[in-house]
Design brief:
It is a single chain. It is built from 25 helices and five strands. The chain has two domains: 5-391, no CATH class; 395-506, D-Maltodextrin-Binding Protein, domain 2, CATH 3.40.190. It has helices at 5-28, 36-49, 66-75, 78-83, 85-109, 113-124, 127-132, 139-159, 162-176, 181-196, 201-212, 214-227, 232-235, 240-249, 261-276, 278-293, 297-316, 341-349, 360-377, 385-393, 395-409, 426-432, 447-453, 455-458, 471-481, and strands at 418-419, 439-440, 463-467, 487-493, 501-506.
Length: 507
């Protein structure tokens, strides 16, 4: 059964309203940049257009580039950058696209608008996803790509057209340039084209693969060109693997799930429960039978691949997930459970297929209301685990930013120059309204290396913002021991459980 453009228009307007209201509410509440990663993504996008060496080299490594590139039209405006909306707007737009593609895919695959609406409601009304889509995080960018991939593969099953193959390839490229689980999806989709194709199955699979692998090949080439190591994102000094190994070398307890499938599964499923809620999980389990009876195998399989990727990543040791109900009783990467929401939504929406045709709209509404009801009964942000994670882990960073930004904003004059480290400290500049081209930070090569290794000769900035004992603080002390510039400590910001922030002024 084909959908009508009126259906898509109504779905689009509804999704846009829900996403926009959530984004406005989050921004008004001051939560947009609670996640440290949200601040980092926003500032990476900003430095591409606003730094001492703006341009391609500022894309960096480890994090894939598409989310940052989508922010470029907005991040150039100071007001949108300072508020965080420059990153939230494209994230919310991707939420809209994800919902449209999910609806269109299930409308075609299940031949039922009720099933499509139920699945859409289960996904789009989840408060944890609504919070993430209102921030400069990458989850909804990948979600949009995955749902587009689902739509084009379902379209191929019905039409056998090479246009749908090309669409799937482009969607895969987008997903692979947003998050690394997109790389993991590629071989499974290539096999799907071999199975679902009738006349030109090998050519379809080859065409998809040829387009899809362009993204991983590009990123390998990017890392080789910029860092002389194609795997810099994987094993470089800022990679998750290297950070984990350094922590283990300092006697940190290994992550739960590291080479332990049982622990990895238990922790991930616990995170899924916190993100989705018991009702949504129960509906999904019940709906699996209906989905299998109606042969909705592919939507379930495709959306199961990202959660499997995270289980494998947890087992390999590179990706930890901490949940408040299990040791070490804290919050870290709980948002990775968002990857399971499309699977739960499709399985839960399939429950509608068990109802007679005329009852399906009512059953769809009941399914969505049942899943959303627990969140509405207790509509508190503290019950949204993604919000709670961002709020808990950003307490110190928000406190030092709030203290340091007004201090530097007053006496700072354009052209003075600030030397600092790129990362959490950049939030101080954003909050103070100081453009990034005023700052010298790691990544501004060769000036950064010269200033930190021979500060007596090359360090000329008027101000310095440092973590006590970091590279910049060390360079300042080194300069004072030679005939270099002298800096005076003018402000110290101390926050419980956080490094000391030091602000220096050149004498």
């Amino acid at each position: 059964m084909k959908y009508t453009w009126i259906e898509l228009a109504l779905v689009s307007v509804s999704l846009a309203a829900v996403g926009s209201l959530a984004t406005a509410y989050v921004n008004h509440s001051g939560w947009t940049l609670y996640y440290g990663d949200a601040e980092a993504h926003l500032d990476i996008a900003r430095r591409i257009v606003d730094s001492r060496k703006p341009g391609y080299d500022q894309i960096g490594t480890v994090w894939l580039p598409l989310p940052h590139l989508l922010m470029l039209p907005f991040v150039q405006r100071d007001a949108l950058w300072r508020s965080g909306l420059a990153g939230a707007i494209p994230s919310s737009a991707c939420f809209l696209c994800a919902g449209i593609f999910l609806y269109a895919a299930l409308r075609r695959a299940a031949h039922s608008s009720a099933v499509a609406l139920a699945s859409l409601g289960l996904l789009a009304l989840n408060p944890n996803l609504l919070y993430l889509q209102a921030t400069p995080m990458t989850e909804t960018v990948f979600l949009a790509a995955l749902m587009a991939l689902l739509y084009f593969t379902v379209l191929f099953r019905d039409t056998q057209s090479f246009a749908s193959v090309a669409g799937a390839g482009v969607a895969s490229v987008a997903g692979s340039l947003a998050r690394y689980e997109g790389w993991f999806v590629i071989p499974f989709v290539a096999i799907y084209f071999l199975i679902a194709g009738r006349k030109h199955r090998f050519l379809a699979s080859l065409l998809f693969s040829a387009i899809a692998v362009l993204a991983p090949l590009y990123w390998l080439g990017h890392n080789w060109w910029i860092y002389s190591n194609p795997l810099e994102f994987y094993n470089g000094p800022y990679s998750a693997m290297s950070i984990y190994r350094r922590a283990l070398a300092q006697n940190m307890t290994p992550y739960r799930g590291d080479h332990d499938w049982r622990a990895a599964g238990y922790y991930y499923l616990t995170a899924v429960r916190l993100v989705a809620g018991w009702v949504a999980i129960a509906l999904a389990i019940a709906g699996l039978a209906a989905a299998f009876l109606r042969r909705l195998f592919w939507p379930l399989l495709l959306t199961a691949i990202p959660p499997i990727f995270y289980l494998w990543s947890m087992h390999s040791g590179g990706t930890p997930i901490f949940v408040p109900t299990l040791w070490p009783f804290s919050y870290y990467n709980t948002r990775y459970a968002i990857a399971a929401l499309p699977l739960l939504a499709i399985a839960g929406g399939s429950l509608v297929l068990l109802a007679p045709g005329r009852w399906r709209p009512w059953v769809a509404g009941a399914v969505v209301i049942a899943a959303v009801a627990p969140w509405l009964i207790r509509p508190r942000p503290g019950d949204w685990v993604t919000w709670k994670e961002s709020q808990t882990n950003s307490t110190a960073r928000r406190a030092w930013t709030k203290a340091a930004a007004p201090f530097i904003a007053g006496p700072y004059h354009s052209g003075d120059g600030i030397v600092t480290s790129f990362g959490d400290l950049i939030g101080i500049l954003r909050e103070a309204g100081i453009p990034l081209h005023e700052a010298l930070y790691d990544g501004d090569e060769p000036a950064w290396m010269a200033a930190t290794t021979r500060p007596d000769l090359f360090l000329s900035e008027e101000w310095a913002i440092t973590f006590s004992g970091d590279t910049v603080a060390t360079a300042i002390q080194k300069a004072s021991l030679k005939t270099g510039p002298r800096y005076r400590l003018v402000q110290t910001v101390k926050v419980k459980g956080a490094p000391v922030i030091e602000i220096y002024k050149r004498d």
